[in-house]
C-alpha cells in the first residue's frame, strides 16, 4: 500500500514513497522499494533447514541413548522444540489463525525478536548435550550463530522486527 504522505509536498518525489508488505502473521514491514526483504525469507529457509538438522541430531541422540534419565531427555526435547520452531516458520509463510492464536498464547517469545533469538541460542546449546558426533557440534554451532545473527540484525535493523 503506497504512502503518499511520505512523498513530500506535491507527491512528486517517487523515491520517497514507501510500501508496506505483510509477511505471514508478523506485523507489516515497511520497505522503500515495496519488495519483500530477501533477508527475511533467507532466514526462514535457513531456520527450517536448521530445524531438520536439529531433529536429525535428536534422532541420532535417541539411537545413542545410554538409558540415563536426564541425559536421555535432551534428544527428546530437541526433537519437540525443533518441531515447534519448524511449525512456527511454516505458519509465518502460510498463516493459520487458530495456530497463530495458539502460538501467541503459549509461545509469545516467537513474536519478540530478542525472545526468538535467545530461544534459538538455547536450542543450539542443547545440541551440544547430545551424543550425535560431529552432526551435534555442527548443528549446535550453526543454530547458535543463527540466533546471534538474529540479535545483530535486530540491533541494526529494528524496523524488520516491529513490536506486536
Please describe the topology of this protein.
Elements: E1 19-21, E2 29-31, H1 38-63, H2 69-93, H3 97-106, H4 113-127, H5 134-156
Antiparallel strand pairs: 1-2
Helix pairs in contact: 1-2, 1-5, 4-5
Transmembrane segments: 41-62, 69-88, 108-128, 135-155
Pfam family, one: COPI_assoc
InterPro entries: Golgi_TVP15
* Low-pLDDT segments: 1-35
The total count of helices amounts to: 5
Largest sheet, strands/sense/barrel: 2 strands, antiparallel
- In total, the number of domains comes to 1
Q: Mean pLDDT across all residues, rounded?
A: 78
Number of strands: 2
Please tell me what the overall shape is: globular
Judged by helices, strands and strand pairing, the structural class is mainly alpha
Give the termini distance in whole angstroms. 20 Å
Strand order of the largest sheet: 1-2
Name the helix and strand elements from N-terminus to C-terminus, one letter apiece. Answer: EEHHHHH
Radius of gyration: 19 Å
Strand content: under 5%
Specify the helix fraction band: 55-70%
How would you portray this structure in words?
The protein is built from five helices and two strands; from the N terminus they run ββααααα. By secondary structure, the chain is mainly α. The chain has one domain. Strands 1-2 form a two-stranded antiparallel ribbon. Strand 1 (19-21) and strand 2 (29-31) form a beta hairpin. Helix 1 runs antiparallel to helix 2 (69-93), helix 1 (38-63) runs antiparallel to helix 5 and helix 4 (113-127) runs antiparallel to helix 5. The longest helix is centred in the first third of the chain and has 26 residues, at 38-63. The radius of gyration is 19 Å and the shape is globular. Pfam families: COPI_assoc. Keywords: Membrane, Transmembrane, Transmembrane helix. InterPro entries: Golgi_TVP15.
